[in-house]
Design goal:
mainly alpha, about 210 residues, 12 helices, two-stranded antiparallel ribbon
Amino acid sequence: MNAYQIEQAETLDMVCRHLGTMSPGERSALVSQISDYLLFRDAVDAFLREHFETTCTQNCYQSKVSACCSREGIITFFGDVVINVLVSDKAEIEALATVLQTPNTGFKCIYLGAQGCMWRIKPMVCEMFLCDQAKKEVFGLKPWAGELWQELKQREKLFRWPDRPVLFDDLERYFMAAGYSSPLMYLHNSPGLLRVKKQAKKNKQKQK
């Protein structure tokens, strides 16, 4: 296992262990907390299926030239892991744990299986990535779809960009309060995102 696999595996195990100690009521409350995010992801999935599925499958996945999936590892936020575990069944979680124990000697992302991404709710970075060529091909024919995509990109920030209270920050804080720590807690570890929080706090104070 390389360093990437280790941090991914440890975070997955951490999330599973803590969720396993929660009462049904506590787990239900956490699922309710992510409900708006799941609706957002449904909207993104529908958009990508309608406008990009054929283009991306033929030009990227099948040709093995993906700028994203051909990398050994992807950027996963702690919130990505929590949400995926909450909505996945036991077999899906075990499959992720198993692949993280397996040396990755291929050209592709370790999470990319024969049927595509192994995550039930794939990481936000992957879901919201469209290469320039795909955007040019699709939005060139359907400019209005480009406008819809920009709206979805703005909605994405409501869950992950910490210039206000956001879901991914709340999920990290929830597990930190229980005594857990992970390098994937970027909203509490990333210098760039911490600067965003600091600036947002200053702006709020100026408005008072």
